[in-house]
Write a structure and sequence with these properties.
The protein is an alpha/beta fold. It has helices spanning 16-27, 53-56, 69-74, 133-145, 156-167, 183-200, 296-310, 374-387; strands spanning 8-12, 33-38, 78-81, 85-89, 94-97, 102-104, 107-110, 114-116, 148-152, 171-176, 204-207, 211-217, 220-225, 230-233, 235-238, 242-244, 260-262, 273-275, 280-284, 289-291, 322-327, 330-336, 343-351, 354-361, 364-371. A hairpin with a 2-residue loop joins strand 21 and strand 22. The two termini are 24 Å apart. The structure holds flavin-adenine dinucleotide. Residues 12-18, 37-40, 47-48, 50-51, 84-85, 111-114, 130-131, 157, 245, 248, 277-278, 294-296, 299, 323-325 line the site of flavin-adenine dinucleotide.
Amino acid sequence: MTWDSLSRIVVVGGGVAAQRCLWRLRDLGYDRGLTMVSEEGYLPYDRTQVSKELLRGGVAEGELALATEGEYAERGIELRLGSAAVALEPAARKIVLSDAGALDYDRLVIATGGRPRLPPRLREVGVHLLRSRSDAARLREELAWSASVAIVGGGFIGGEVATAARAAGLKVTLIEAAAWPLSAGFGDEVGKRIAALHRAAGVDLRCGVTARTVGRSGEQWRLQLSDGGRISADTVVVGVGMQPNTEWLHGSGVTVAEGVLTDENCRTKMPGILAAGDCARFSHRAYGRPVRIEHWQAAMRHGEIAAHNALGEDSAFAPVPFFWSDQHGVKHQSCGLPAGFDEVSVTELGSETAYIARYRQRGRLIAAFAAGSPVELARARKELFEARPVAAV
Ligand SMILES: Cc1cc2nc3c(=O)[nH]c(=O)nc-3n(C[C@H](O)[C@H](O)[C@H](O)COP(=O)(O)OP(=O)(O)OC[C@H]3O[C@@H](n4cnc5c(N)ncnc54)[C@H](O)[C@@H]3O)c2cc1C
């Protein structure tokens, strides 16, 4: 590997994909200019704890940093924190920043992740979203004086907020558009079990309904549901998925289609521009189509692979996706992608909250979802790794 022609690599984004990319570039011996630009005003941190320990108050914000400022300095990484990339001029190899500055690059790694989706009908000042440490701090503060919370979206984030709020003794209403929480991705068998877990924890779960409107009435929020129901709550949180942060690439020539489109080597069609992490939709050789993965371990590994390829290697990124979520004291984990399954078998593992669901397509295992059983999930994960020649993440 040679980087004689490179004088600066810029990584735009301040999440785990960016941090792992920066570290790997130095580990590979790249010793020229290296800059990280992050819209957030603090160093990359463990985002998975935003809806877990941080929301519960079990950890302080500063404890979540993936590395200290000193470690960035030791590695000669220039930090542009609190500064967003607002435009890209590939012909001039220039990134325009929100603080009126601009940065030249020889290689650019886009690792801008995503932000929570907020349907227009729910856009009201005071409605909470959860993506960053600051979001968690604001929500925690409000939950501390709230007696009730309405959560729109029964996915992993909604489920984790429900967990933290029930642990704090709040009345929790969880509103899920599908027939069961998580059933859109993992099917009804798993969805029913997740519903039972929420209800056993005292969550008032409303499935098959959407929040039509949200507005304030005096001190409280009022939500109007699609089935005619009404809910009052002190706090409202919306967790209905995320969208990639790609607007700043508009007009640059970088292809954006539900994420920054890349090949399996993290490369966009624009010379010298790569992408990694939640913002990237990359060709995956095992799935035969571009995929975008919103999982912590994938983002880490993707950032590392992008570092190799920024220096001229051709390393393919083709992970078996792996995810976890903690809800009401039960660890849930998944591996693979269940989309397109035609058969699901659920095996109970000694208690109501311990089971594994295995998803098959034409008889072949494509994914698994386990509750309360990391050992079983690890077995399924190994099976998936062995079934296809892809990189383990
Ligand atoms: C609350 C929460 C809990 C989660 N829990 C789990 C879990 O338990 N398990 C799991 O596997 N995954 C979990 N995830 C998903 C996981 O955290 C993500 O997959 C991972 O953080 C993605 O990392 P990333 O670096 O690609 O993007 P991000 O973490 O989104 O980082 C992107 C960074 O880029 C910055 N940025 C955006 N636009 C610009 C711009 N124009 N200029 C400069 N900077 C910009 C952002 O401010 C941010 O700092 C969770 C996610 C959330 C939000």
